[in-house]
């Protein structure tokens, strides 16, 4: 996906009704020794980092349970849509664990330190509507009979992104992701570098021409 220039947006969904991702298989984990657990979690953390580093926008469609590593997967995405009835939480402390695939870092960056601490310390599960009120998900939608309401809303959101200039969207994602980790002056420099990469693109010229000619632009990702 990273190297496929035809990909504009990636939507993560589950094929299992009622479950987005329930996290690690604890029965499997119980059979591992300490070294194996450490390697397992390191590989999981690397996977989440790879997802977070995808150059195009990513959307998690949470139509059911997103617990532990399942929520960490959703947090590695840029945007999240949840069914109101979804159950969401970093429940690791209820099993003698702590989040190890990015949860302690991405959750506070998403909803703030105090709320993240509360959810992680308590291992509490919240529904999609509560997640929306915290800013953990972008949208919460009533579940439908098919059980894919979040996925349908995620597709609608993806279709809003699709017509926009692909390189500009990618550079916008990069500028936000890198800029949020530094002071604002450094962030402005990052934005400037990302903007400079977009200036010579054919899509920028197309955008200007379409505005002048009062028509919809036809972006090609070049």
From TrEMBL:
PANTHER family for the chain: ENOYL-COA HYDRATASE DOMAIN-CONTAINING PROTEIN 2, MITOCHONDRIAL, ENOYL-COA HYDRATASE-RELATED
Family: Belongs to the enoyl-CoA hydratase/isomerase family.
GO cellular component: a single term: mitochondrion
Pfam families in the record: ECH_1
The name this protein goes by in its record: ECHD2 protein
Gene3D superfamilies, A to Z: 2-enoyl-CoA Hydratase, Chain A, domain 1 (3.90.226.10), Lyase 2-enoyl-coa Hydratase, Chain A, domain 2 (1.10.12.10)
GO molecular function: enoyl-CoA hydratase activity
UniProt-listed PROSITE patterns: ENOYL_COA_HYDRATASE
Record InterPro entries: ClpP/crotonase-like_dom_sf, Enoyl-CoA_hyd/isom_CS, Enoyl-CoA_hydra/iso, Enoyl-CoA_hydra_C
Keyword annotations of the record: Lyase
GO process terms (BP): fatty acid beta-oxidation
Species the sequence originates in: Eudromia elegans
